[in-house]
Amino acid sequence: MGYGGIRFMKGYKKPTVSIIGASGYSGAELTKILLRHPSVKLEKLYAHTQTGKNVRDVYPYLDTDAVYESFDGNLETDIYFLALPHGEALSIVPKLTNEGKTVVDLSGDFRLKSPEEHAAFYSGNKKPGSFLTYGLPELFHDDIKTAEAISNPGCYATSIILGIAPLVKKTLQDVLITNVSCTSISGLSGAGKSGKVELSFSEMSGNIRAYKAARHQHTPEILQALDTSTLQPDFGFTFTPMIAPLVRGIYSVLTIQLDRHISAADLDEHYRMYYRSAPFVRVQKSMPEIQHVVHTNFCDIHVANSADGGTAVIVTAIDNLVKGAAGQAVQNMNIMLGYDETRGLL
């Protein structure tokens, strides 16, 4: 049971939860999940541009009479989720942790151990030593259990790491990865709610395009979770993100070069064994589809092919706003508080 779970059990109270950055897409998804969560009480919804507006006027599907408030530094809530643009959590998270609050940050501000990598892939600087426990439950469950503050993984990173991890964290027949090429397609909600002409319906309807090829900010996060780095990589790695006219979802095709051939059947069994205790990972016999995972916290994985030359093709699908953001954040909270990690998510 996590630290927070022990504290709240001793106090015989249902912990209170607030969201800073509640009016964006991830914040709205967090609101929806936490409103129905049986073991926490959603208290405050903080926003900037929507301050003073009734939540239902902004998102009619959210069943609450709450009003978006401006965050004034009041720290009466037990648990804080931060769903803010890059850089804005840097000054807030230390204040929350210094007051003993349980924190889940959805930004990239605290994901990387290396200041050099952060400076290379994110704009601005970051002081060393600010890395928080990385909240990918399928890989770091025990670390999350004892943490008081979590850095929630990125959406692309989640879809890619889960597709590669079984071949890194628990090798199959001592086979090593020599190269990985990732192509991932994301829905437009991954870019956030701020209006951008290039993401408008007129520009994206019937369209698809790549961006930040081989330079996306999730790249060092992915390699760090796989026990390597962009500074001294253990294998070749190329990541090409793409956007498509979808509202939500991430679809990743991972072409993994191994140092020798492993059959697709053996790979499939290896993945099933690796994720046998992971309630939100489904290793599928058939090809995953975005429509099978939207509005859920599941990651679907399929071993699509394994060629004689040692090339394996793994396909994954997630909802970028749920498993790639808000759902995974609540999954992390559940683990930190000692709850079943599926609580409020099924």
Characterization of the model:
The chain is α/β, with parallel strands linked by helices and 346 residues long. The protein has twelve helices and 13 strands. Helix 6 links the parallel strand 5 (133-134) and strand 6. The longest helix is centred in the C-terminal third of the chain and has 15 residues, at 322-336. The two termini are 21 Å apart.
Number of DSSP E strands: 13
* Binned strand content: 15-25%
Quick one: biggest sheet? 7 strands, mixed
Helix and strand content put the structural class at alpha/beta
**Percent in helix:** 25-40%
Task: List the secondary-structure elements in sequence, H or E.
Answer: HEHEHEHEHEHEHHEHEHEEHEEEH
Shape: globular
CATH superfamily of the largest domain: Dihydrodipicolinate Reductase, domain 2
